[in-house]
Amino acid sequence: MKHIKVATIGAAFSLALLASPSVFAGPYSDEMAKCLVTSTSEADKNFLVKWIFAAASLHPAVKSISSISDSQRNELNVKIAKLFERLLTESCKAQTQQAVKYEGPGTIEAAFQVLGQVAGRGLFSDPGVAGYVAQLGKHVDPKKMESVLGVPKKPN
Questions:
Q1: CA angle at residue 113 from 70 to 130, to 5 degrees?
Q2: Cα separation, 57 vs 71, whole angstroms
Q3: Alpha-carbon distance 24 to 16, whole Å?
Q4: Fewer C-beta neighbours within 10 Å, C or N terminus of the chain?
Q5: Through-space distance between the first and last CA atoms of the chain, rounded to whole angstroms
Q6: Residue 73 has what pLDDT?
Q7: What is the pLDDT of residues 123-153, one digit of tens each?
């Protein structure tokens, strides 16, 4: 079996969050993904959202509107590493070993992509977040949208 560097797991998870669904997912990575999702509590998923936000806040486009300190980021990285370690070496050890053995190390990315999507859904289903996103409609010109999308036809 190929060795997987622990440092690449965080990077794979980060990339998996935004990756296209073209990542190979076979039966073993599907089982691994199911295990990752069922082995994370709501608190774990919320922590993932926090970590994702902290990582994304380093992007130059949003850095000026974030106030996360380097020590907070370091603390989040330490805790997320422990979560990844627990998931891969304890909670989902057998599923991880089989997925990597039969489908290769890329299955880790595929499985974490599913976990990231589940955590992301939790983020956007929060009433405060959903309400903010819904306010976008107040600022969109419906006539301009209709000019592109057309007016829906009424059924006969």
A1: 75
A2: 14
A3: 12
A4: C
A5: 62
A6: 94
A7: 888 899 888 888 888 888 888 888 888 766 6
Separation in Å, CA 35 to CA 6, 79, 87, 91, 93: 19, 20, 8, 8, 9
Quote the number of domains for the chain. 1
Where are the alpha helices (H) located in the chain, listed in sequence order? 6-18, 27-38, 42-56, 70-86, 93-103, 106-125, 127-134, 142-149
Tell me the C-alpha to C-alpha distance, in Å, between residue 95 and each of 88, 90, 118: 9, 10, 19
Is 146 exposed, middle or buried, given 0-12, 13-18 or 19+ CB atoms closer than 10 A?
exposed
Residue 154, classed as helix, strand or coil, is coil
Mean pLDDT of 113-128: 87
Query: Is 84 within a domain?
Result: yes
In a domain, 77, yes or no: yes
In a domain, residue 156? The reply is no
Q: Residue 38's domain spans which residues?
A: 6-149
In a domain, 27, yes or no: yes
